[in-house]
Design goal:
Layout (H helix, E strand, L loop, with lengths): L5 E7 L18 H10 L1 E7 L5 H10 L3 H4 L6 E3 L5 H7 L3 E5 L3 H4 L11 E3 L24 H9 L4 H16 L14 H13 L5 E7 L18 H8 L6 H4 L5 H6 L1 H24 L6 E6 L5 E5 L7 E4 L6 H4 L4 E3 L7 E8 L3 H9 L14 E5 L4 H8 L6 H4 L2 E7 L4 E7 L2 E9 L2 E6 L3 H8 L8 E3 L8 H9 L4
Parallel strand pairs: 1-6, 1-7, 2-11, 4-5, 4-6
Antiparallel strand pairs: 2-10, 3-17, 7-10, 8-9, 12-13, 13-14, 14-15, 15-16
């Protein structure tokens, strides 16, 4: 094992623990990850995401700071470029790369992309090797078509580049005229290919973030892995006007949201197959034992679960709720050189990721774990103005979604206790495992107040981009993903 191990953070975007086989799910969604955890990795049974939204959670995972500490919750904020662990690793001599179509990591300037030498983003175009409009970001705002045309015509593949531009315009403005077979996102294999190609060219230690969006809305598994959904579920999903507010506004029955979970499972199965190929390739190259592999998620997903703290409110998709379907995430870690499997049932936090990396680099394998000495904390921030405007078209009373919710997780010796709050309401919830959690009391605010009273905002946040400064492709992607 080398002194400086490679670092691979794999984020299965929007994947909750309860839909994985290792965590008791009825469908065989993760046969590879299950066997990997059972034979030669560490599975954390009670891991929690720091936030319920992509930008807040990624900022915490990258920086090792709680949401209240970094304060980066929208495109209007920017994390200090030196705060992410990937920026620190690059400074230490690592080659760094990010591979995803999650625009929070590649296109929107919230400080998360600054630590990467190699940035491979939004690739859902007919010809990935040509100029990609989604990656053409201008500081002058949206609608820079003349500049794109100049870049495309001057490239090595002008015809294919122009075809990418036409396809992007169709998907942006005329999606209703396109056939259902046109995918909204790129399957995992494209980004796994990019990561493997890049890592194979590195001479020294490398650190990468691979964020796979297959299980983010809309759920579009390829036929090979669509074992539980099928055409009827796909047609139902295509009829949704909005994956979240259609349901929270009472415009659609909740059984329809639950029905598309079958597609979600297929998308998870699709990513699992690519994880197997990724790990197998690293092993064939002789790199596996020199690599820290962390497989997790930034947050989970809701399919109609009832809120722990707001009577009458249910969870659709993700964002504001503090429910465990959004916070209880998978966490499977293979430490460099690990040969024996382990299971950890104590509360674990993804905020520990930078500290795990640094301890391993210091040669301290014994304390390089994801279970903090104190409590595990999580925060779900309320809707910002763009999202309030979107939600307001469906829901009259937005009060359950405009307040910040907080949660504290503690081990009471028999299970995990969660204390959570939303405005004037509180709840105490018991979490036995990823499949079993239930409310036991309508109190617990004192535990939350005590845990968060020492959390103060650090000086790591500055003003970020305005949504009006984003290029057309990025803005449309964020809108399609439900972020604006």
């Amino acid at each position: 094992m080398s002194a400086d191990p490679n670092v691979l953070l794999v984020i299965l975007d929007s994947v909750r623990a309860q839909n994985l086989g290792s965590y008791g799910h009825v469908n065989e969604t993760t046969p590879f990850l299950d066997s990997f955890a059972a034979e030669r990795a560490t599975l954390y049974e009670q891991a929690r995401a720091p936030g319920a939204r992509s930008v807040t959670s990624h900022a915490s995972i990258f920086s090792g700071l709680h949401v209240e500490e970094h304060g980066v919750v929208s495109a209007g904020h920017r994390l200090d470029p030196s705060a992410p662990i990937f920026a620190q690793l690059r400074e230490a001599g690592y080659s760094t790369g990010v591979f995803t179509e999650n625009d929070w990591l590649t296109a929107v300037d919230v400080g998360l992309r600054d630590g990467f030498d190699e940035i491979v983003g939004a690739r859902n175009v007919p010809f990935p090797g040509a100029v990609n409009p989604h990656e053409f970001v201008s500081n002058e705002g949206r609608g820079q078509y003349a500049a794109f045309l100049k870049l495309a015509l001057g490239s090595d593949a002008p015809v294919r580049s122009l075809a990418n531009g036409v396809a992007t315009k169709l998907q942006s403005d005329y999606k209703r005229f396109l056939p259902d077979s046109v995918r909204a996102s790129t399957p995992a294999d494209v980004y796994v290919d990019s990561l493997l190609d890049w890592s194979d060219r590195q001479d020294g230690p490398w650190a990468a973030c691979l964020n796979l969006m297959d299980a983010h809305i809309p759920y579009e598994p390829t036929p090979e892995y669509d074992h539980w959904g099928g055409s009827e579920a796909a047609s139902l999903q295509a009829a949704f006007e909005d994956q979240k507010w259609d349901f929270n506004g009472g415009h659609r029955p909740w059984w329809q949201k639950k029905a598309v979970e079958s597609l979600y499972d297929g998308a998870i199965r699709q990513m699992d197959a690519e994880l197997e190929r990724l790990v197998s390739t690293l092993e064939q190259r002789g790199e596996l034992d020199d690599t820290l592999i962390v497989v997790t998620s930034d947050h989970g997903e809701g399919f109609g679960e009832r809120s722990d703290v707001r009577p009458g409110v249910r969870v659709a998709e993700h964002g504001v709720a503090i429910h465990d379907c959004l916070l209880h995430v998978p966490l499977v870690v293979r430490y460099p050189g690990q040969t024996d499997p382990h299971r950890v049932d104590r509360p674990a936090s993804l905020v520990e990721f930078p500290r795990v990396v640094n301890r391993l680099r210091d040669g301290d394998r014994q304390t390089a774990g994801f279970c903090p000495e104190g409590r595990v904390l999580a925060t779900a921030v309320g809707l910002d103005e763009p999202l309030q405007e979107r939600a307001g078209a469906y829901v009259e009373d937005l009060s359950p979604w405009t307040a910040t919710s907080r949660a504290v997780f503690e081990d009471d010796g028999e299970g995990i206790l969660k204390y959570c709050t939303n405005r004037d309401r509180a709840a105490t919830v018991v979490s036995r495992d990823a499949q079993t959690s239930y409310k036991v009391a309508d109190d617990g605010s004192e535990h939350v107040d005590r845990a968060f009273e020492s959390i103060e905002e650090r000086d790591v946040k500055t003003a970020g981009e305005d949504f009006d400064d984003l290029d057309d492709g990025t803005y449309q992607r964020l809108e399609d993903l439900g972020y604006v």
